[in-house]
Amino acid sequence: MMTLCPLAPQVLYAKDTPRDPENSQWVDPFIGTGGDGHTFPGAVTPFGMVQLSPDTANLYRGKDPQPEIYKHSAGYHYDDSTIIGFSHTHFSGTGHSDLGDLLIMPMIGEAHITAGTAEHPETGYRSRFDHDRETASPGYYAVDLLDYGIHAELTATDRASMHRYSFSRGEEAHVMLDLTTSMYNFDNKVIWSDVRILDKQTLLIHRSTNGWANNRPMYFAVRFSRPFTDIDLHNLDNKRYRCNGCLDKKNNRPSTINNPDEPYAAGKAIKILAHFTEPTREPLLIKVGQSAVSYANAMENLDTEIDHWDFDRVRAETKKKWDTQLSVINMKGTDSQKRQVYTALYHALQAPHIYQDVNGEYLGLNGTIQKATDHTNYTLFSLWDTYRALHPLLTYVAPDRVPDMIQSMLLHYQQSYNNMLPIWSFQAHETWTMIGYHAVSVISDAYLKGIRGFDIDLAKQAILDTANHPSYDAIPAYKKYGYVPMDKLAESVSITLEYAYDDWTIARLFEELGDDETAQEFYGRATSYKNLFDPRVKFMRGKDSQGKWNPDFDPEEAKLMGPFTEGSSFQYSFYVPHDIAGLIDLMGGDTPFIERLDTLFTKELDHEKIKEHEDIAGLIGQYAHGNEPSHHIAYLYNYAGQPWRTQARIRQIMDTLSSDKPDGLAGNDDVGQMSAWYIFSSMGFYPVAPGDLSYAIGAPQVPEISLTLQNGKHFGVTASNLSETHKYIASATLNGAPLNRSYITHQDIMAGGQLHFEMSDKPNKAWATQQDQRPPSLSVNR
């Protein structure tokens, strides 16, 4: 057994870290890093382009056993006990993997160029670590690399980052820069990479990868706080170039360009080892700037955002950014509740993220260099997930960024080869993952809320071109038949239902813009959901182009390439968010609808019927909180006149499927959607149908919480007598006046004031039961 070296006494461990007086003190970046939350604990700014975080997965080219990719979508998993290094780009909470660009790992003793294994980290540059000697807070991460006696610290700005490594022993230290690591699959997906040594402190690095996004470039400028004594460049073909003597000592730059000994290497698998003597003399710092455009822009980003060597200054400035952003919500509650709410807000404020250099340049979807002159360009639009709650939340907690996010979507439309708004896009690439055209929901919801600052005429054109596109999914068939036939396309039922919702948001927008003809067309399309409701079985069901129902129908079954997307008919039969009243009529009225909802939550699930889907998680009966198609369902009792049942279900979900532990998320956070659900639900309401400007009331989960709005007003929610047993709403007031409806509106929120609930241990079965007291629906509000 290897003896682990004790670290230097000046190391500050998590348990010794003083508490901050600001909201960032409640953020625990480790929530979601266990289970299937797929979040990362590393350093990031609000909506920052850099996500510098530790990687514990061994996803690199080699012969060693590989861990589950799904488990390591964010690179780090709390169950692991070794770290292979720190890479600069990560996804937060996705069910798919990619990124992991430029992995850096310090070491002492023998220098390694392979990672080694989790069982035997000493065979490579991997190191053991212990959660008791690991800490993270907004904009900061630190861990002790036990095999090396190194205290590693990370912090970041929007486009650059800083590492600080404190060595406790050793005569020579080494820093590995590995360009081969990947979070995509078992094989190395690097198309090309290269490294140029500018001087004994500065490297320029590039790599392009194929993965979820193909031919995705990233450039880095890397600068060490002191000169390296030597540097090795390792290539895929095992050629090794030692840089000793290859730099002109007079000007400390490469002496020739074509010299065979020049400090340059290129290929598909480049690894770099920089060597430093006297490692214990002072901490080694590394600054890294990154860009998707060029080496020059990476250097400019670095020099602009970190023009000094003060690590603590960067950390403090990033913390201040987070405290400012997190201050939009203030609350009272238990420490556990505070940790969950503020960590959820922290996760929700990470995407979409900046994708633009300090000079305004960014890589466009068409592969050309673009320059933003009047907006900030954003990327990472996981729209099938985030249109539901994340984007509606951002209209309150980050409204100043929403216009630029929408403008970025519109530029995506202009730069795409087929004139489409983004579906699931990141870093200048459309992945075509998931279904629907939910960018139209984000645009419509924002515009109807009064958010401007983007080109509405371009938005109108982009929306109509996307919703009528002749080659996307099955839009022509959808328009021809009024549904997507199951013999034309897999996932046909889910696609039809999500198209119908999107079409309703389009109708709402064009009605607001005064174009009644277009509005009426899309209101008609919004009722297409009715064409796939089988009145005999009372479920949504696949139908072919001849009008014949799916003969193999099983409402509990969720199959890959079946009629439903990551779900079953049990869940998707409730996906008519814009017209729940119409769905209630189809199911036979309030009583049958409530019985079906109860069955969803109580009917035991045969796990064999969902085994093809990793994402269906967080189960209560057939309800799957770990995946987005279920997120609105608990609120639907309101529409049938029994809001007290929603109040009980929300508490059940909160108590059983979330916590402040690493496995505290019931499934993928999905780029902030799960977190946004938690924030809205903690406040006591939720956007069932973004675009209708109403929020179905659930029940407050904390005694006091408030939103600071961009107009300077505050909207607060308070709950008297709230406890573990007092989970039901006895009565409600809005600004002192009785509130007898089970919803509030956007106008209520923006006007400021206070929503107050009196809570009870017994349900008030008379509150908000009448039709005019229920949330709005297409069938009863037009």
Automatic annotation (TrEMBL):
Keywords from the UniProt entry: Hydrolase
Q: Which Gene3D superfamilies match?
A: 2.70.98.10, alpha-1,2-mannosidase, alpha-1,2-mannosidases domains, GH92 mannosidase domain
**Domain of life of the organism encoding this protein:** Bacteria
Residue spans of biased composition, Polar residues class: 767-782
Q: Which GO terms describe its molecular function?
A: carbohydrate binding; peptide-N4-(N-acetyl-beta-glucosaminyl)asparagine amidase activity
Q: Which residues form a coiled coil?
A: none
Pfam families reported in the protein's UniProt record: Glyco_hydro_92 (PF07971), Glyco_hydro_92N (PF17678)
Describe the location of the Glycosyl hydrolase family domain by residue ranges. 297-761
Provide the residue span(s) of the region labelled Disordered. 763-782
**Xref: InterPro entries:** 6-hairpin_glycosidase_sf (IPR008928), GH-type_carb-bd (IPR014718), GH92_a_mannosidase_put (IPR005887), GH92_N (IPR041371), Glyco_hydro_92 (IPR012939), PNGase (IPR050883)
An individual GO BP term = glycoprotein catabolic process
Keyword Hydrolase present in the record's keywords: the answer is: yes
What are the residue boundaries of the Glycosyl hydrolase family 92 N-terminal domain, all occurrences included?
Answer: 26-291
A GO cellular component term found in this entry reads: cytosol
Q: Supply the SUPFAM superfamilies for this chain.
A: Six-hairpin glycosidases (SSF48208)
Q: Which NCBIfam families match?
A: aman2_put
Protein name per the record: Sugar hydrolase
Query: Which organism does this sequence originate in?
Result: Paremcibacter congregatus
Taxonomically, what lineage is the organism?
Bacteria, Pseudomonadati, Pseudomonadota, Alphaproteobacteria, Emcibacterales
